[in-house]
Amino acid sequence: AQADKVAALLQSAVAARPRAFLQIADEAQRPLALALARRFRASGYDAPAVELVGARAPARTELRIQGRSERGYARWITRLLAEAIEADPRVTTLRSARPHADTYEVWIGRDLCLQGGREVAACIAPR
């Protein structure tokens, strides 16, 4: 019975971890997104696979905060993004969202890391 109780507590702790989704416009942005995902995971976030969204990506990199997700986490993600993309990301709140855990969406801007677009050091895959 005690083991079941501990297992349930662990399961709820894992489910409550903050979650950061990453969306990219082009495969050239994948090294940047993967580097961000590694940072999120190292800090205890759940960071599911990077999603290729193509033309649905915004022109400028955005952080979308879902519902009442923790603003302290959002500030940390904003600083991390600003460092990686060498510019301040746009920050919006999706007020109608009701996630079960603190949830954030990172949308990499369409022009970042692409030929003819804005290049930053994080665009280059580590060797």
Describe the 3D structure.
The protein is of the alpha/beta class. 33% of the residues lie in helices and 18% in strands. It has helices at residues 2-15, 30-42, 71-85, and strands at 19-24, 51-52, 62-66, 90-94, 103-107. Helix 2 (30-42) links the parallel strand 1 (19-24) and strand 2 (51-52). The radius of gyration is 16 Å and the shape is elongated. The model has no long low-confidence stretch (mean pLDDT 88).
Keywords:
alpha/beta; 5-stranded mixed beta sheet; 3 helices
Give the overall pLDDT as a whole number: 88
Strand tally is 5
Structural class: alpha/beta
Count of separate DSSP helical elements? 3
Helical content (DSSP H or I, runs of 4+):
25-40%
Biggest sheet strand line-up: 2-1-5-3-4
Described by strand count, sense and barrel closure, the largest sheet is: 5 strands, mixed
Order of helices and strands: HEHEEHEE
Question: Beta-sheet strand percentage?
Answer: 15-25%
How would the global form be characterised? elongated
TL;DR of this structure?
33% of the residues lie in helices and 18% in strands.
Walk me through the topology.
Elements (H helix, E strand, L loop, with lengths): L1 H14 L3 E6 L5 H13 L8 E2 L9 E5 L4 H15 L4 E5 L8 E5 L20
Parallel strand pairs: 1-2, 1-5, 3-4
Antiparallel strand pairs: 3-5
